[in-house]
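hey m, so remember when u said the tokens were messed up on ur end? i reran from scratch. heres the input so u can diff it against urs
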Amino acid sequence: MQPELPDLILGCNVVAVALALLTVPIFAGLMRIPFVIIAPLIAIIYVVAATRCRTPISTSS
């Protein structure tokens, strides 16, 4: 028997609120990092991700 839709939606909302409340301290801590430090880190992550998207993960022979 499948759960009723309203119960499923209520469960998802409870999980979403719990995750949001648990991650607030993490994001608050990130806001304390000076911009001159975090901006280059974001740029490096962006370049690596863009390079990774252009390079195939596996090469087929």
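this time it looks ok to me. Residues 5-31 form the longest helix (27 residues). if urs says something different then somethings off w ur setup not the seq
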